[in-house]
Design brief:
- The chain has 332 residues and is an alpha/beta fold.
- The strands form three sheets. The protein has a five-stranded parallel beta sheet with strand order 5-4-6-7-8, with helices on both faces. It has a five-stranded mixed beta sheet with strand order 9-10-11-12-13.
- The longest helix is centred in the middle third of the chain and has 36 residues.
- It is flat and about 70 Å long.
- The model has no long low-confidence stretch (mean pLDDT 86).
Length: 332
């Protein structure tokens, strides 16, 4: 991070130029006007204006830069069309402007794709769910299914509870829930029907909450995946060690080494590249890498694609899905 100065007293410009030349990510933070607060050497860097509301976002950018938080920012909006379409679209647009990859059923599924399979697939790969908890939400079969699915996947839910609606009906079954009780004052002209939209400060509050929940929930899901893998390893008398970087390592009796990297959501090619960097940081020359992930609800075509990559990728970096943990640890 480079904190600007509105008096133009810029520090450490030599170091900043060197870091830029090395390709290091630098996040400029300004207080009033970018042009005055940030030195010209950083004029091409995308910056954030400092405010208390932006602290979570700044923290997440830093975590992403250190590969401690995945850089894909995925949010899933769950709602009942008959009751909250206008707010769903409003949040979709606001989150996109905030650099999130947002799933909204009416906007995010290609024609010809199997609707429900793609919806579960996208939910599996999201960081946070925004649930618009309107009075009739749980009366919808599919809304209820989405809620149950989120709980099964341990995905954090930001619940926006409509005015005069009781949250107690659903919060007991949610795995990780962050409820916000709304009032009529949170809506433009106090209209909270299907055409009602949030006032600007409410939108900003949702953005701040999503940013905060995202980092905490991804960390919790990563911990859960690590715990499940370790338990199966111990059951099969395999000794894996959790490293401070939240990866697992195993030294085999024949001298070979394996690094297991917990991957939340669907592994991507960038996950393999990130794994290669981690291997170098660990100081290993020869090591096998396995990206471990939960394959529940991932579409078959993606699972087949990952299997194909395992068979054809030249480097010893492969994916290992949860349903194969036991078999792998028994025979590897």
């Amino acid at each position: 991070m480079y904190f600007g100065d509105n008096n133009g007293d810029f520090k450490d410009l030599d170091v900043t130029q060197k870091l830029l030349k090395d390709g290091t990510m630098i996040l400029p933070i300004f207080y009033d006007r970018f042009e005055n607060d940030i030195p010209s050497v950083l004029e091409n860097q995308n910056a954030i204006k400092f405010s208390e509301d932006e602290l979570n976002r700044i923290t997440n950018v830093v975590l992403e830069a250190f590969e401690l938080l995945r850089s894909t920012r995925k949010v899933f909006i769950s709602y009942r069309r008959a009751e909250s379409t206008a707010v769903a679209i409003q949040l979709y647009e606001a989150l996109e402007a905030y650099n999130f990859d947002v799933f909204l059923d009416t906007h995010s599924i290609q024609k010809g794709e199997p609707f429900q399979d793609e919806l579960w697939h996208r939910m599996t790969d999201c960081d946070v769910i925004i649930l618009l908890n309107t009075p009739g939400f749980l009366e919808s079969h599919w809304c209820k299914e989405e809620f149950a699915e989120a709980s099964a996947k341990q995905i954090g839910i930001v619940q926006l509870v409509w005015p005069n609606h009781q949250i107690k009906n659903i919060d007991k079954s949610s795995y990780i829930s962050y409820p916000i009780q709304l009032t009529e004052d949170d809506f433009i002209n106090k209209e909270s029907d299907s055409t009602g939209r949030f006032i600007e400060t409410m939108v900003e509050r949702v953005l701040t909450e999503v940013e905060s929940v995202r980092a905490r929930n991804l960390a919790a899901r990563q911990d859960n995946l690590i715990t499940e893998f370790r338990n199966i390893a111990e059951k099969n008398k395999r000794k894996v060690t959790v490293q401070p970087e939240k990866i697992l390592t195993e030294d085999l009796p024949n001298g070979e080494h394996i690094i297991y990297i917990p991957t939340i959501g669907i592994p991507q090619s960038t996950s393999c590249q990130s794994a290669e960097i981690k291997k170098e940081l660990m100081g290993y020359d020869e090591v096998s890498i396995r990206l471990i992930y939960d394959d529940l609800r991932i579409r078959d075509k993606w699972l087949k694609h990952l299997e194909w990559l395992n068979d054809n990728f030249r480097k010893d970096i492969k994916t290992l899905k949860k349903q194969d943990f036991e078999l792998w640890l028994q025979k590897a």
